[in-house]
Write a structure and sequence with these properties.
Layout lengths: L33 H34 E4 L6 H4 L8 E11 L2 E10 L3 H12 L4 E5 L2 E7 L6 E8 L8 E9 L6
Length: about 180
């Protein structure tokens, strides 16, 4: 009988099994933790609230733009504005009439070659004793509250900034409770 070596060579097992793969993190078969669910729910609620608020703001802007009508300032009369129009003032094409609920706002613009001092003196006389007059950085504002609650007329007088030379810009804003006459 032939001699066998003392240490026979190891036999290769071709049917060796390998361990299952190891997952890093949470295995897909296990549910997520409660804290992750809470974070996702809070995030979803925050997004829904932001979408609702955005919709409300967007609707408000849409409604305001639908109620705003651009018109030339020459369509307004002194009774529409609640104060006299400066004599000889040239109306601007930029004017606005806006109706929101029971409030109406009219905004009219005028230019005159007269000085800001002349225009301010005219409107101080027309505004009466209840007027509040403020001047800041070459802009004079004359605010005239009316006896009806919430109604007011504001006249803003300033040097023209449109490069038209030595002209004075007049901006009259009237806020009233009822629609003014057309």
């Amino acid at each position: 009988m032939p001699d066998q070596p003392e240490n026979p060579a190891p036999q290769m097992n071709t049917q060796q099994s390998y361990p299952p793969p190891q997952y890093v993190g949470v295995p897909p078969s296990q549910p997520r933790s409660n804290s992750m669910k809470i974070v996702l729910i809070i995030g979803a609620v925050f997004i829904v609230i932001c979408l609702i608020c955005g919709g409300i703001v967007g609707f408000g802007i849409w409604r305001a733009t639908k109620s705003m009508h651009r018109v030339s300032s020459d369509t307004f009369t002194a009774s529409d504005l609640g104060i006299a129009i400066y004599p000889g003032a040239t109306p601007s094409k930029m004017g606005m009439r806006m109706q929101m609920g029971n409030r109406t706002m009219i905004n009219a613009f005028y230019l005159t070659p007269d000085s800001t001092d002349q225009v301010t003196a005219f409107y101080k006389d027309k505004a009466g004793p209840n007027a509040r007059i403020t001047t800041l950085a070459n802009v004079t504002r004359i605010h005239v509250p009316t006896s009806v609650g919430g109604e007011s007329v504001t006249v803003e007088i300033a040097p023209s900034t449109d490069g038209s030379g030595n002209k004075t810009r007049i901006n009259i804003v009237r806020v009233s409770l009822a629609a003014p006459s057309n």
